[in-house]
Amino acid sequence: MKAGIYIGKDSFEQELRFINLLKELSAGGCETYRVVSREELQDNTDMLLSVGGDGTFLSASEIVADRDIPVVGVNLGRMGFLSENSPEELAQPLLSGDYTVENRAMLEVLPQGDIVLPAGCCRALNEMTVHRNGPSMLEVEVCIDGIRLPTYRADGLIVSTSSGSTAYSLSVGGPIVLPEAKVLIISPIAPHNLNMRPLVIPDAARIDLRMCSRDKDFVFSADNRSVILEEGASLSVTVAQFSLKRVRLNRSNFINALTQKLFWGEDVRNIK
């Protein structure tokens, strides 16, 4: 087996738990090498280890997005929905094949007109976001497969995949969605009209957005990468033709992750 290593912080290389993981993988016959960019991926790479937290995983997903290489999260960060595995529990399942490779939908962003997006801002695993870049609220005109929605007047708007339902979308009141659900979530950020609620739509839909504001520009983000665009810009969002392959250990599942990370369903009145 051959595995690339993408590390979120250089200091993680000195973590004893990470060093021990590399030793276990090497003892099991796994060749590893450091990866920083897409260009450094070597031929015949079987998987990419993302070492850090969920933010690191999002950066790693951009490196292998259309390369058909699975990503496995090694959690040395905080929350860890995508990077849920501790270093101590990974070596044996990876070497023995005791894992499942999931397909996670990714968003593809198509700029309209003469807008040019940086390469890293054209796709996202969790969400794409438009957000005001000044004191004035942002007006977002939204069409779903050509059908116009009421204009969102808010601080911004999030278009999320099911994978991203536990990320930014959740923090603004969006629903939790199982990762295998083929849906997208449109969630306003601090809407001016409180009756503008999150909307769940089929992931086969095309979402067209046009951003208007009294300010001259706004912020567009794809996962943890962002760029400033001029007011009046239009973007189209669809599910990409390719998906991200994510390694999930067979003993783990999404419901357990919800319980452990968000204390889902726990009631302090029942704790003795």
Instruction: Characterize the largest beta sheet: strand count, sense, and whether it forms a barrel.
Output: 7 strands, antiparallel
Shape: globular
CATH H level, superfamily name of the largest domain:
Probable inorganic polyphosphate/atp-NAD kinase, domain 2
Q: What Rg is obtained from the alpha carbons, in whole angstroms? A: 20 Å
CATH topology of the largest domain: Tumour Suppressor Smad4
CATH class of the largest domain: Mainly Beta
Class per helix and strand makeup: alpha+beta
Notable traits:
alpha+beta; 5 helices; globular; Tumour Suppressor Smad4; 2 domains; 6-stranded antiparallel beta sheet; Rossmann fold; 272 residues
Summarize the structure in words.
The structure is a single chain. The protein has five helices and 17 strands. By secondary structure, it is of the alpha+beta class. The strands form three sheets. Strands 5, 6, 8, 9, 10, 14 and 17 form a seven-stranded antiparallel sheet that branches. The protein has a six-stranded antiparallel sheet with strand order 13-12-11-7-15-16, with no helix packed on it. The chain has a four-stranded parallel sheet with strand order 2-1-3-4, sandwiched between helices.
Topology (SSEs and partners):
Layout: E1 2-7, H1 16-27, E2 31-34, E3 47-52, H2 54-64, E4 71-75, H3 91-96, E5 99-111, E6 123-124, E7 127-132, E8 138-144, E9 147-148, E10 152-154, E11 156-161, H4 168-171, E12 183-189, E13 199-202, E14 207-212, E15 217-222, E16 225-230, E17 234-249, H5 254-262
Parallel strand pairs: 1-2, 1-3, 3-4
Antiparallel strand pairs: 5-6, 5-17, 7-11, 7-15, 8-9, 8-10, 8-14, 11-12, 12-13, 14-17, 15-16
